[in-house]
Each structure stands twice: as C-alpha cells, then as structure tokens.
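Fold it.
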Amino acid sequence: MSIDLTQDFFALFGVPRRYEIDDAALEAAWHELQSQVHPDRHAHLSDAEKRRSMQWATRVNEGFRTLRQPLTRAQYLLELAGVDAGLETNTAMSPEFLMEQMEWREAVEEARAAAEVTELEDLHRRLLQHAREVRAELGRQLDDEHDYEGAADTVRRLMFIGKLQHEIDEALLALEN
C-alpha cells in the first residue's frame, strides 16, 4: 500500500475538485484510507516503512481536516488555483461589509451589556443564516464562475463572520455562568 503524497487532497479522496462536495463520500473515503494507512496496521514492518505509514496517515488526516470544513476547503481551492487570499495581509473590505459588521457588533455588545440571552440567541440564528448565504455565494464563485479573486474576498468575509459568531457564543456562555 502506498499513497502518492504529492497528489492534492481532492484526488487523494477521489472527490471532484469543487467547493460543493459530497460530505458522505468524503467521510467514506477517509475511513477507507485510514483503514489502509493507519500506523497500527504497519507496526510489524521496518522502521522506514513505519515512518512512511505515519506520513500517509498524517497526509490523510490533514486532507480530511482541510476538505471537511467549507472555509478551509475554499482556502485550499484558492491555493490550488494559485490565488493568495491574503488572509493575514489583505484586510481591505467593502464599506458596505464593514458597516454591516459594525452593526452586528453593536447589536451583540448591546445584548451582552443588557444580558439579553434571547436577543443573543436571535443574533446567533440570524448570523448562521447569513453565513449560509455567504457560503452559497462562495460556492457559486468557486464552482460556477471561477471567480477566484471574488472568492478570496468572500473567504475573508466568512472569517469575519466566524469571529463574530465566536463572540456571540462567548457572550452566551458568559451569561449562562
């Protein structure tokens, strides 16, 4: 048994190189690959073969972690397309998006300060729906339009949304304690 460690994660798992993938097929492929490369299956082999098995298992796990999450999958697709999403360096966002983020953050802060759990839960639901809509847009950009620059911008937007979701979750936890 050997795995080509140079192939991309989509090829490794036998799924199409797309943003929208079949999660069940990905998981089934992961289980199949894990059963083949797990280091315990190779414990009786030489040290070199054990190391190779560990490399295979690491690559399979890394690929699964990357592809199973929509945001990391999108980032990986951009990387494969040669597009730098500029996640650490490009923080330029449209004024509309920045205004929207400011409004969300103000609403969260007001609900947190007033200890309004119901309002925070409502914001949580609304933000989840908004994230679903943005992920659908990302899917169109990547799979249908091949608009990688636009997708890079959408990935950055989703990261902001994720941070805001985390803030809401933390506020809810703080109010529960």
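DSSP finds seven helices and no strands in the chain.
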